[in-house]
């Protein structure tokens, strides 16, 4: 009978550890994206996005589907270092939705000589082939 509470504790501890490991992985992805952006490397910035035609990006111009089209839009809207500026993310919330999905809400800010920009984002991460990828991005 004394073993049962210990087993519950062990289960809850392992559950919390797994969850925090995933959250750390997702936060690391966002940090890597910020570094890539600030180096002017849009291809590396886009690496965590799902390389699939079903990737969904929602922005001020509406909905874009597909990794390649999303990259093309980034290149069109941010053609050079002055337009890109320096990116900073502030994570407001990470929420585990299931073993396969995480939601991330945050703020983004671009410090630029041509005028700063900023807004908010909601990302949906999905674990595919044991890696977290962004399958949906709503940025405003």
The average pLDDT is: 90
Global structural class: alpha+beta
Assembly state: single chain
Distance between the termini: 54 Å
Q: How much of the sequence is in beta strands?
A: 35-45%
- Overall helicity: 40-55%
Per DSSP E runs of 2 or more residues, the count of β-strands stands at: 6
CATH architecture: Roll
CATH topology annotation: Nuclear Transport Factor 2, Chain: A
Uncertain stretches of 5 or more adjacent residues: 3-18
SSE string = HHEEHHEEEE
Radius of gyration, in angstroms, nearest whole number: 18 Å
The spatial strand order of the largest sheet comes to: 2-1-6-5-4-3
Query: Which descriptor suits the 3D outline?
Result: globular
> What is the makeup of the main sheet?
6 strands, mixed
Number of self-contained structural domains: 1
Tally the helices: 4
The CATH top-level class label: Alpha Beta
What's this model, at a glance?
The chain has 140 residues and is α+β, with helices and mostly antiparallel strands. It has helices at 3-38, 42-46, 67-77, 81-84, and strands at 56-59, 62-65, 86-96, 101-111, 117-128, 131-139.
Supply the key terms:
140 residues; alpha+beta; Nuclear Transport Factor 2, Chain: A; 6-stranded mixed sheet; globular
Describe this structure in words.
There is one protein chain. By secondary structure, this protein is α+β, with helices and mostly antiparallel strands. The chain has one domain (3-139): Nuclear Transport Factor 2, Chain: A (Roll). Helices cover 40% and strands 36% of the residues. The protein is built from four helices and six strands. The chain has helices at residues 3-38, 42-46, 67-77, 81-84; strands spanning 56-59, 62-65, 86-96, 101-111, 117-128, 131-139. It has a six-stranded mixed beta sheet with strand order 2-1-6-5-4-3, with helices on one face. The longest helix is centred in the N-terminal third of the chain and has 36 residues, at 3-38. The radius of gyration is 18 Å and the shape is globular. The N and C termini lie far apart (54 Å).
């Amino acid at each position: 009978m004394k073993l049962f509470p210990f087993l519950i504790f062990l289960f809850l501890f392992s559950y919390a550890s797994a969850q925090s490991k995933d959250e750390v992985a997702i936060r690391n992805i966002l940090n890597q994206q910020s570094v890539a952006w600030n180096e002017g490397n849009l291809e590396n910035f886009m690496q965590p996005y799902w390389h699939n035609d079903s990737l969904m990006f929602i922005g001020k111009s509406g909905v874009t589907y597909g990794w390649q089209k999303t990259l093309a839009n980034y290149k069109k809207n941010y053609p050079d270092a002055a337009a890109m500026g320096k990116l900073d993310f502030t994570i407001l919330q990470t929420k585990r939705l299931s073993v396969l999905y995480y939601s991330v809400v945050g703020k983004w800010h671009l410090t630029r000589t041509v005028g700063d920009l900023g807004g908010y984002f909601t990302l949906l991460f999905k674990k595919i082939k044991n890696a977290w990828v962004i399958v949906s991005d709503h940025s405003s």
